[in-house]
Design goal:
Length: about 400
Amino acid sequence: MTRRHMVAIGALAALAIAACGSSNDSSGSPAASAAANGPATGTPYQVGFTSDLSAQFAANGTGLRNGFQAYFDYLNNHGGISNHPVNVTVLDDAAKTDRALANVTQLVTSNSVSAIAGFLVSNGCGAAAPVAKTNKVPILCNAVSGDLLSPVQPYVYTSRGLQVDEARPMLDLAKKLVTGSSKNMAVITLASAASASLRDALKAAGPKDGWTIVADQSVPLTASDVSAQTSTVLKGKPDVVVGALHDPLAILFMRTLASQGATNIPFIDYDGATLTALGGLKNPSYYMASSITVDGNGSGAALQHYRDVIKADSFDPSGPFLNVGYVQGVIIGEALKACGFPCSGAQLQAKLDKLNVDTGGITSGPLTFSATDHEALHAVSFYTWDSATNAPKVAAANLKGGSN
């Protein structure tokens, strides 16, 4: 993936900053501040965070929080932003829409935050959008349904690409994997708003590419078993399966397929899965999308900085969703640097709309927002398991996103 497609950093590499270069002033970045500054001691910025920390997606939600917190812990310990630390208030929404809404209301009214990150599940992001707009506080969502970004809502952003825009690269990869005359495709996704939009896009675009959709399955967010859906998929005799299942269900799905003799059907999964699925399965027929380096491996100042930041809080850089949390930290941190102190939500929103950060290989291209585009990334790579090296490898790099 992106670690093998490092962006030329030039003189910026010497800074070794988290964003490894930006259109904004990077003097307040962690590593750039480290030489001259100790812990930040000024009046803090206030930032909020909400995610599932206790329910069915807690492993990923906790990783998202840990990566985000690690970024700001390191920043604060190395001078902060012009000596202003960033205080992060973390709340658990347990993947429940009503709790996400209550958390956002609390963070806005009681904690007076300038921005709120997290939002592991798209349903929570959707519920929070009206509150963000009313109070002029940007929310940076891990997952978001396409209708919130097209047309753009001024205070809703996503730190990755839209799930719906993974449809085109999934179909492009499927075309490379299935070369015979049979073109049967099965679709299986979680029942979140974002995954539903991906599912609809796959069903619409697949036939245009010559695929026959032989199975179409939606899995409840609370599901712990996919045996019924797997049976339906197998009855369709697919040549490839595409969709969106998080780690536990992806592992269960692939193992159920194998137990019924379907050992060679490729499953192309979305970017909500992690190395947990890849390493748990060690199955070269499983392909996982990601627009962010999944383990932090590779050379270069930016990737080394990522590893340093995550390890400083005693976490594993390859842990699930620490990479996404770190990238959310980079986005908020760089916007705060450009905003100055103090920085209201409305002021921060104006800086987010001008964000352009070269991550030096951490992501598939730069992190960019504009007034008409609140999707940070527009390409994905696909990982699979390499039996020869007993490690993940890139199967296809930087495929352009799109829903058609």
